[in-house]
UniProtKB/TrEMBL annotation, chains A, B, C, D:
The gene is pucL. Catalyzes the oxidation of uric acid to 5-hydroxyisourate, which is further processed to form (S)-allantoin. This is Uricase. One of its GO terms (molecular function) is urate oxidase activity. It catalyses: urate + O2 + H2O = 5-hydroxyisourate + H2O2. The keyword Oxidoreductase applies.
Length: 284, 284, 284, 284
C-alpha cells in the first residue's frame, strides 16, 4: 500500500493587530488577533521541500498589517478582504480561511480606554467561488442564580446525582452563527443583535436542562435574525455545588456554593434554519 | 553550624466561593476566590510531624464557607472576620492573612448576570493586636492611544531605542492600597472611588514615562482619599510597536500597531502619605 | 422556514483520574484526564427539557471512576470499554467518544515519582457497530538547531522575509494516528514506537520547509507501523529569530536568538496509507 | 501630610533568549527567560518625567542579547555579569536584580533536542558592594503514592477532615536556595546536587505533614551542601481524594483518586543555617 499526502493547510496564527483611528473628537481602537490558513497545490513542499507554491506565513502576517492601513471596518469584511486576496493573487492557493478575534475596549475619555470582557469572532472562508461568513462570540460568561432545574434523567447503576428543581446555571458561551450570504449585511448591527438575543434567551429561559437553554438560545437568534442560517453553541456547564454546612449546624438555603473547576459538563449543539443554503466550507 | 526552621506559614489557597442573596426584587451574587495563610507556633509539625497545633487547611476552607452563611458584605470586612477568627480561636496561630479576589458580575435581569472584566482584591492581616487592611484591583487593562512620550533617557552603547513623542501606552494595572485604619471605612465606596481615581489619572496624565503615570495614579488616589496611607502599583508596559509598512510603499501615521507579548517593561513603585501609620504587617 | 435541532452531543469533560497500582516491589501510577461525549436520541431534552433519555454527565464521571476500580491498562482499551458501555447500556445513546490524555510520571523510588513533559492521548469512538481508535501525543516540544532551510518560496508585494539556508526549527508536536483496527494491537508498544519514529524523523530530516518535516514524520510512522492507517499532525512553527547585534559591533553567527511567542506559523497536514479502511467516525 | 514616592524599581521582564553553541561533535542549547529590575535615583522620572537617569528597558533587553554573544555559562554567572554591568555603568542605578529561568532540553541527536519538564532558576542581586546569589527550581512536580499520613491535628467546630494514615502526597516544588558567597562555586554542580537532594528527601521522608516534608527537604540540602545558607520552599498540596465507590458496591483500597484543582493547601517555609551570613538583598 502506498503512502500519500492527505488534507493540509498552513498559515500564520495569532497576528496581534491594533489599529487606532484618530478622529478629532475621539480616537477609536480596534484590537484583533488574526489567524490565516491557506490550502491548495501544496504537495511539492511536503514531498520535496520545493517551496515555489508557498506564500510564506511571514507574508501573510505582513498582508494583515498592510491591509489594516486602509482601515479595518467590521471584522467580517476585513477577513473577507484578506481571504479573497490570498486566493485571488496566489496561483497555488485555492482556499483561504481567516479567523479573527476582536477584543472589547470601552471608551473612558477622548483617547483612553478600558478593556472589557467578551470576544467577538469571525471565520471567513473563500474557495475562489463562494465566501462563507461565520460570526460569533467566545468566553461570554453568564449565570442564572435560579430558574434552572435538572430531574427526570435516565438512571443507571452509576447514577448518584440528586434531582434538583433549583440550581445555579452558569456557562462560558462560545457561539458561532453562519450567515445566509456574504453580502448586504450590516455586520456590526447583526453581531450586536445576535449577541443580545443569546444573552436574553439565556436569562429568560426557565431551564430544565442546559440542552434546553442551548436550543432556546440558538432558536431565539434565528427567529429574530433572518440573515442567519445556523447557530452552533458550545456550553461548558460551570458547576456550582451547594456546600453542605450541616456539620456546623447551619442550613444552606441555596446561598453558599462551591464553584468547581473540573470536571465540567460540556453541551454542544447546533440550531439550523431548514431550507437555508448548505454550509459549504463554513465549518471546514 | 546548626540548621533551623525559619519563617513559615500555611493555609488554603483559592477557595472558590459564590454566595447568592435572594431578595424578592432581585438576586445578588458575590463571587470570590479566598486564600488564607496562618503562622504561629508551628515548629512541631515541621520538625517531628506532631500536628497538634495545626488547624487543617481543610478546616480553613470549611470556615470560609460557614462564615459565608451569615453573609459576606465587603470583602475587606469578610477577610477581617476570618483573620480574627483564626487567630482568636486557635491557640497556636498568631498571625493570619486573608487574601480575597472578587470577580465582577453585571446584572442582566432579576437573577441573571454577565461576567465583566476587572478583579477587586483585599489582603487583611491580623496578629492578635492590629488589623491591617489593603484593598486593590488586579488585571485592570487600560490604554491611551496618544498622550504618551518617551525621550531624553540615558543612552549607553546598548541603546538603540528611538525617542518618541507619541506612542500607545497600555498596561494591566495591579494596584494595592493600604488603609489608615481597619475601622470606620465604607469599603465599597472607598474601593469604587479609589479605582475611579486610578483610571482617571491614567487617562488624564500626559505621560513622559510610565513611571510618571504610575506616580500620578498613586498620588491622585491619596490626594482624594484621606482614609488611604499608601498605594503600590505594578504596571507592565504592554508594548504596541508601530509596524513599518514602507516596504509596501505605505506610510503608517500612528495607525497600525503590533501588540507584543514578551518581553515587556515592568514598572513597580509606591506612593506614600508622609506621616501615615507604619505599614506593620500590611505587606508581609 | 422552520428551525430545527442540528448535530449535538454532550458529556463530562476533564475528569481527573489517578490510579495507583500497589505492587509489593513498586507502585505504578496512571494519571489521566478523561472526557466523554455522547450523542443519540436527544431531541427531547433540547426541545422540551424532558431528560428521560439523558444519562447525566455526573453519571459519566462516576462511570469513569468505577471502571478504573478494575484497572485501567492502556488508555485506548480503557476508552473503548467506556465508549462501549455508554452505547450498549443506554438506549438513547448511539455514539460515544472518549478522549483521554495521559500525563507522564517517571519513577524515582518504590512509590515516588517525578512528572515529565509529554502527553499521550487517545480518542476512541463507538457507534454501536464499529470502534475506531486514534492514538497520539500532544505538546511534544522539539528543536533542531540546524539542518533547516527555507527559500525558493513564492514572493508577492507583501513578501519581505529573507531566504535562509540555516535556521532553528522548533515545534510543539500534536500528532494523532488512526489505527487500522480496534483489536489485536499492543497499544503501549505501538504508542512508544510511533512516538519514537516521530521524534527520529524530526531529528533526521534535513528540512526545506516545516511541511516537508511534517510529511517525513507521518510517513516514517506509517512505513514502520503497519497497524496504522493515517497520521494527522499540527505543528506550530515556534519562531526563533537571530538577534541583530551589529549596532553593538558584534556579529551573530547563528548563536543568539529571540524566541517569539506570537504570531507563529501553523502547519497542519495528514499522511495516509492508500487503501486503508475509511476513517468512519475517527475524526468526528 | 505630604505625599512622596516610596520604593520603586523598573526593568524588562521575560526576555526570551536562546543561545546555540555549535561544537563540531554536537550543538548545545541554552533556553532562558531573563528579567531585569533596576533601582536607584529615579525620583525625577516619577515626579517630572525627566528620563535622564532612566536606562530604557529596551536597552536592558539589548544588553541581555549582547552579553549572550560572549557565551552564557551557568545562569548564576550570567545574571551576575548583567547585574554588575547595570550598576557599574549606569550612574543613577544602585541596585540590580536579574532573575533567570532556564528551560530543560534533552539531547536526541547531534543538533536535535526534546524539551523536558523542570525549570532551573536564579535571582542575583547587586548593590554596588555585594552580590547575592539565589538558585532554585520551579514547577518540579513530584508524588508519593504512599508513606504520607495526616492526623492528630487541631480540631475546632469547623473541622470535618478525617484523619488518615495513608494518602497521596503530591506537590509542585518551588525552591530557592541562597548561596553563602557569590564566588568560587561550581554553579552547575551545586544546582544538580541540591535538586537531587530535594527530590531524594521528598521520596525518602515518611511524612506526617507536608510541613515535615518541607523541612526535611530543606534540611537535606543544607546538610549536604556547605555552600548554601538557606532554602525557601513553597509547596502547594495537590490534593488527591480517594473516590467513594460504595454506591456502586465497590471498595476503593487506595487505588482510585480524584486529582483536585482548587482549593489547595499551600505550605511555605524556610530552613536556615545558623550563623550563615545575613541575607542582605537576597530576598529583596
Amino acid at each position: 500500500m502506498e503512502i500519500r499526502l492527505g488534507d493540509n493547510q498552513y498559515g500564520k496564527a495569532e497576528t496581534r493587530l491594533v489599529r487606532v483611528d484618530r478622529h478629532p473628537d475621539r480616537h477609536e481602537v480596534t484590537d484583533l488577533n488574526v489567524s490565516t490558513a491557506l490550502a491548495g497545490d501544496l504537495a511539492a513542499t511536503h514531498l520535496t521541500g520545493d517551496n515555489a507554491g508557498v506564500l510564506p506565513t511571514d507574508t501573510q502576517k505582513n498582508t494583515v498589517y498592510a491591509f489594516a492601513r486602509d482601515g479595518i471596518g467590521a471584522i467580517e469584511a476585513f477577513a473577507a478582504r484578506l481571504a479573497r486576496h490570498f486566493v485571488d493573487t496566489t496561483p497555488t492557493i485555492h482556499r483561504a480561511r481567516v479567523r479573527i478575534e476582536q477584543y472589547s475596549w470601552e471608551r473612558v475619555a477622548h483617547h483612553s480606554f478600558i478593556r472589557n470582557s467578551g470576544t467577538r469572532t469571525t471565520t471567513v472562508t473563500y474557495d475562489g467561488a463562494a465566501v462563507t461568513v461565520v460570526s460569533g462570540v467566545d468566553d461570554l460568561v453568564v449565570m442564572n442564580t435560579t430558574g434552572s432545574e435538572f430531574h427526570g434523567f435516565h438512571k443507571d447503576r452509576y447514577t448518584t446525582l440528586a434531582e434538583t428543581d433549583d440550581r445555579i446555571l452558569a456557562t462560558a458561551v462560545r457561539a458561532d452563527w453562519r450567515h445566509m450570504t456574504a453580502e448586504g449585511t450590516d455586520w456590526n448591527d447583526s453581531h450586536r443583535e445576535a449577541t443580545s438575543h443569546l444573552v436574553d434567551a439565556f436569562a429568560d429561559t426557565h431551564s430544565l436542562s442546559l440542552q434546553q437553554t442551548l436550543h432556546a438560545m440558538g432558536e431565539r437568534v434565528l427567529r429574530h435574525r433572518e440573515e442567519l442560517a445556523e447557530v452552533r453553541l458550545s456550553l461548558p456547564n460551570k458547576h456550582h455545588f451547594p456546600v453542605d454546612l450541616s456539620a456546623f449546624e447551619l442550613d444552606n438555603p441555596g446561598e453558599v456554593f462551591f464553584a468547581a473547576d473540573r470536571p465540567y459538563g460540556l453541551i454542544e449543539g447546533s440550531v439550523v434554519r431548514d431550507g437555508a443554503p448548505e454550509p459549504g466550507l463554513a465549518w471546514w
